[in-house]
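Possible regression after last week's pipeline update?

I re-ran a chain I had predicted before the update to compare outputs. Posting the input and the new output here so someone can diff against the archived version. Not blocking, just want to make sure nothing changed silently.
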Amino acid sequence: MQGLILQLSRIGFLILLWLFVYATIRALRNDLSIAGGRPISLSARPSRARSRTKAARGSARYLVVTSGALANTRITLGDQPLLLGRADDSTLVLTDDYASERHARLSRRGDDWYLEDLGSTNGTYLDRAKVTTAARVPLSTPIRIGKTVIELRP
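New output (post-update):
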């Protein structure tokens, strides 16, 4: 009887182990499936972002969280750079497990705002394109940091 219980325990443990491996591979596959596993340059895509900026001329006045734990949060923009991340001294403190302590920075240059990734683990995305250098942020273009999506609004 003890041999049978030991054998069933081993089989149960093996099934649980394979389920864990399957769940891990599936999660990794979902994380890598963003943009087909490769960054998309904004110039290679149709000019959807450019047409938005033509329609929404003017300077951004607000940073709005459109989805995530802080949805509907609105920050009035000034001339100072904004630090985005989990650190307590960030301008927008993200309660997101996929955000780094100091994840990204939004800084003003003239009338335009530029987004920089600060060496985050999971990356910063501007309208589905991974940000690798400072990138100009058009109005109403989604910026994704983990599960949080923010936009600049007039």
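Follow-up from reviewer: compared with the archived run. Residues 63 and 152 are 5 Å apart (CA to CA). Marking as no regression found.
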